[in-house]
Amino acid sequence: MGGWLCEPPLGSGGATNRGVTQGTYDRYRSTKGLAKQSVKLITSAEVHDIYESMYWDVARCEELPWPVSGAQFDAAVNAGPKQATQLLQRAAGVSADGVIGPKTLAAILAMPSQDLALRCCEERQKFYQSLVNRKPSLGVFLKAGRTG
What we know:
Elements: E1 16-17, E2 20-21, H1 22-31, H2 44-56, H3 68-79, H4 81-92, H5 102-110, H6 113-134
Antiparallel strand pairs: 1-2
């Protein structure tokens, strides 16, 4: 199964440090009332807070069983929490509205978590392939020939 080598779309967040793009760091600092600065200066505490508050919490990973929570978190970081939730919902066979509500949670909890996590990865692979189909230059970011 192919995967993404770096964050799509190409160049959207600018420079990256510890997996946090300049764009994400700018938004984070703005919400804290802090001046913009280079992502090269990001602290460990800021990285932790960004991943927790902007991805883990927003994507409601704490409410999901493992390994679904891990797949959801990784997808949220790479594609955004709403897109990650839509991928999860498609994998769970519910309406993909990007909101984890009671129906989505019930469907998630009714499925074996290992199976659902694999389905999430398959949905994510389809999503990334659709991006490449629309913009072939993004194909350089797909891992070529890798399995497992």
